[in-house]
UniProtKB/TrEMBL annotation:
Its main location: Golgi. Keywords: Golgi apparatus, Membrane, Transmembrane, Transmembrane helix. This is Vesicle transport protein GOT1B. Belongs to the GOT1 family. It is a multi-pass membrane protein. It comes from the Eukaryota. Coiled coil: none annotated. The chain crosses the membrane at residues 12-32, 38-57, 69-87, 93-111. It is found in: Golgi apparatus membrane. Pfam families: Got1.
Amino acid sequence: MVSFEMNDRKKIGLGLTGFGIFFSFLGIIFFFDKGLLAMGNILFFSGVTLTIGLKSTMQFFMKRQNFKGTISFGLGFFFVIIGWPIFGMILEAYGFVVLFSGFWPTLAVFLQKIPVLGWLFQQPYVRSFFDKYRGRRVPV
C-alpha cells in the first residue's frame, strides 16, 4: 500500500503552485501584465520544486524527451521577463503542454472524482476525448 504523507514542505509547495497559477491567470486577465506573469512563473516553479523535491524536479526537466518542453518553457519565461509577455506566454504554453502531456490522463481521473465538475467530465464526449489520450503522450 502506498502512503502519501503530506508534510509541511509539500503543503507550502502546493500553496505556492496554486498562487503561481492564480498570478499567471491574473497576468493574462490584465492584458499580459509582465509583473504578474513573472511572479506567477516564479511561484509556480518554486511550488513544484518544493512539492516534489529539488532532485525530482531536476530529473523531470532534464529528461531527454522533455528537452523541447523545458527549453520552450525557459525561453518563454525569459521573454516575459524582458518585456515580451504575449510571445513568452505562447512559448510557455507550448512548453507546458509538451512537459505535462503525460499527466493529462491522471488529471482526467482526478477531475472526474470532484463532486460538481465530475459530472461534466463523465459525459460521454468528454470522457471519450480523455480516453483517446490515456496512456500515451500527445505528439508535438
